[in-house]
Design brief:
Shape: globular
CATH architecture of the largest domain: Beta Barrel
Order of helices and strands: HEEEEEEEEEEEEEEEEEE
CATH superfamily of the largest domain: Calycin beta-barrel core domain
CATH topology of the largest domain: Lipocalin
Distance between the termini: 68 Å
Structural class: mainly beta
Strand content: over 45%
Number of domains: 2
Largest sheet: 10 strands, antiparallel
Number of strands: 18
Helix content: under 10%
Radius of gyration: 23 Å
CATH class of the largest domain: Mainly Beta
Length: 242
């Protein structure tokens, strides 16, 4: 009987820790602060992760030094203590692959951008602080869809793609994709009056004001970033997209 007891104890100790009664995997939700260690300098970032009512992951990232706030995260993947996600934009850009440790208080791993991989390290400092996106009234049908634009900034051309989509609840959602940087900027608020359209791009500290031409094919206006005002015309590239 003594020998049998020792065998049972050995089997128990070989079981994975996650399968033992009373233990569970750490959860990645919360407000995280830390940095990405680039070759030039450490970049301070803030990450907020949470699950919505359906149990799906949601999240945002802020980079105070670059005046970027609440960029939308997506493509979440979890396996044990492993957690990965990306900043919404082009495929393969701004991807975090990390692992939770210290009872879910630390999250560290590798961050990939433009083909470069750099370490990141975050510490959980409290509950997630994901702001509720304001609801904007649906726009006119001719404003829905995808629009292409190009701006000239410091001698370089940047392609921007504006997407606006009315929702079933009578609101509108949209974003502007910076193609070269693979970065999606969510539109915080959409304001329309007759043919005039104003977009609040709080995440990048910018705004856009334009007017739709009579043919419904161009939005001509200005992108404002701080004290800078840059001419920007969007041209329709497709019909309404969902």
């Amino acid at each position: 009987m003594q020998r049998l007891r020792h065998v049972c104890l050995a089997v128990t100790l070989l079981l994975p820790a996650a399968s033992l009664p009373g233990q569970s995997m750490p959860d990645g939700s919360g407000h995280w602060q830390g940095n990405i260690q680039t070759p030039a300098q450490d970049i301070v970032i803030e990450i907020d992760l949470a699950r919505n009512a359906a149990g799906e992951w949601t999240g945002t990232m802020s980079v105070p030094s670059q005046k970027l706030r609440n960029l939308v995260l997506g493509d979440f993947s979890t396996a044990g203590t492993a957690l990965s996600f990306k900043v919404r934009g082009a495929a393969g850009e701004r991807v975090f692959h990390g692992a939770l440790s210290d009872g879910g208080k630390s999250l560290s791993g590798d961050y990939t951008q433009l083909g470069y991989t750099m370490p990141f390290s975050l510490t959980r400092t409290g509950d997630a602080k994901i702001p509720q996106r304001a609801k904007s009234t649906a726009v006119r049908k001719e404003l829905e869809g995808t629009w292409n634009g190009t701006i000239e900034f410091r001698g370089a051309a940047k392609q921007l793609v504006l997407t606006l989509a009315n929702q079933s609840d009578g609101t509108v959602e949209g974003n502007i994709l910076n193609v070269e940087e693979g970065l999606e900027i969510p539109i915080a608020a959409v304001m329309q009056k007759d043919s005039s359209l104003t977009l609040d791009l709080t995440a990048a500290g910018e705004s856009y004001s334009g007017a739709l031409n009579t043919q419904g094919t161009e939005l001509a206006g200005t992108l404002t970033s701080g004290s800078l005002s840059i001419p920007l015309t969007f041209r329709r590239t497709s019909t309404k997209e969902r």
